[in-house]
Design goal:
The chain has about 300 residues and is of the alpha+beta class. It has ten helices and 16 strands. It binds phosphoribosyl ATP and zinc ion. Zinc ion binds next to loops.
């Protein structure tokens, strides 16, 4: 184990689908950066935390080489890297899901073919940029097929005749549709995740990493969180509170001139919908307010 540096380094995608959201998320954690001329390094000005801007595929390896402690990648990239590595050489864990960049790694076949199950993949050529995950999947299904590795334009392989089927990332499904393909099996649900050096190393980082992870946790938690305020008669409160989604303990206050009525403030961590508000009103809550939560430190 190498000596921890004084500063933390986080690797994020330089330019691509995850770049903007990754940097936005870190900015919400209060991190401010000065970008180097070559735009590969961002020096942290508000905290001693720097960014490395790189290709997403390089991020897991950079952590293993000790170049950085944390990285933001798609789960698909992290799992593909792990599936192709010696277990002892992988030094990081998946720390948490970040809630952006959703997609899935799926098998797709031509529209005109029926799909009867994984056995249908036997003996076929399947084009993919995820050979390690695909081999793992085929092994688990007990199917032998040939894996054709392509680094881009996987979806045109069936038309070109270089493979019968494909295994690729899908989000809206329009790329598959445009190529007359259909999704028949989901191998992995993916989104952006934070990966970081293993616990023992993380512990050695001390308060700085702790601060960052706490802020991140707060931001992820408040995304869906709302402060709900309403008035209710004391005896109605227990049943009203049972209706609230993922609610914290409420803060109650007396209302002047109304002996039986209470003011209620409660943080809910799931979406508060119109039907829910209407239901609360029907049950006897009044003057209901829903407010966004900007920051939260548990
Ligand atoms: O240059 P670098 O290597 O850093 O970037 P990259 O080109 O490898 O990755 P990039 O920027 O395309 O994607 C980064 C990450 O975004 C991926 O690893 C996923 O975790 C995530 N992500 C989310 C996606 C998609 N959605 C996605 N739709 N990555 C790729 N796609 C592609 C997919 O490969 C297919 O070609 O979009 C097409 C399908 O999209 P739909 O909407 O038509 O289904
Ligand atoms: Zn990439």
């Amino acid at each position: 184990m190498s000596e921890p540096r004084e500063r933390l380094r986080i690797a994020v995608q330089k330019s691509g689908r995850l770049s903007e959201s990754s940097i936005d998320l870190l900015a919400k954690c209060g991190l401010k950066f000065r970008t180097s001329r070559d735009k590969l390094f961002c020096y942290g000005e508000s905290l001693p935390i720097d960014l490395l801007l790189v290709r997403d595929d390089d991020i897991p390896g950079l952590i293993d080489q000790g170049v950085c402690e944390l990285g933001i990648v798609g789960r698909n990239v992290a799992r593909e890297y792990r599936a192709g590595s010696e277990p002892s050489s992988v030094t990081w864990n998946e720390v948490c899901d970040l809630g952006f960049g959703p997609c899935r790694l799926s098998i797709a076949i031509p529209n005109e073919e029926e799909f009867t199950g994984a056995q249908q993949l036997a003996g076929k050529r399947i084009a993919t940029s995820y050979p390690n995950l695909l081999r793992e999947y085929l092994l688990k299904q007990g199917v032998e097929a040939s894996v054709v590795v392509l680094n881009g334009a996987v979806e045109i392989a069936p038309k070109l005749g270089t493979a019968e089927y494909i295994c690729d990332l899908v989000s809206s499904g329009s790329t598959l549709q445009a190529n007359q393909l259909k999704e028949v099996a989901v191998m992995l649900q993916s989104e952006a995740i934070l990966i970081g050096t293993r616990q023992e190393f993380v512990d050695a980082r001390g308060p700085l990493l702790d601060t960052l992870l706490r802020r991140l946790e707060g931001i992820l938690r408040v995304r869906e969180s709302k402060l709900l305020m309403f008035k209710s008669a004391r005896q109605l409160l227990p049943s009203l509170l049972r209706h609230l989604p993922d609610a914290e303990l409420p803060q109650l206050s007396r209302i002047d001139g109304a002996d039986d009525a209470l003011g209620v403030q409660v943080v809910c961590h799931q979406a508060i919908t119109w039907p829910l508000l209407e239901e609360l009103k029907r049950m006897g809550a009044s003057q209901i307010l829903v407010l966004p939560v900007e920051k939260m430190l548990a």
